[in-house]
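Quick start: what a row looks like.
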Amino acid sequence: MAIAPSRLGQLVQQHWSSDDGLIRQLRELGLVAADARDEDLKNTFARARQEHAQFPAGMEMFNSPNERVRVFLEPYLTQEGRRWAAPLRSLHEPWWVRLFRRRR
């Protein structure tokens, strides 16, 4: 079964080529807990890549590693991170709601 897309998954996809860059973005946006260790976050990225590599040929489309990371990051996400991780719903949030949250 495919994993539904999320706003967090889109962010991960944009920064997928650099673990350090992805961690920096997650922290700057307040999506992961301040006490989450970089090593633990990098391990979630590695798990997603490993799981994706184990899918049989032709089945990879059902397991996008950027969305799989969202699932593995769950224990480290802040409340805002959980909003970004909400499948489908996070994609349709009005821009003004995101702006309001940033100012708080």
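That is the whole record. The mean pLDDT is 82. The two ends are 37 Å apart (CA to CA).
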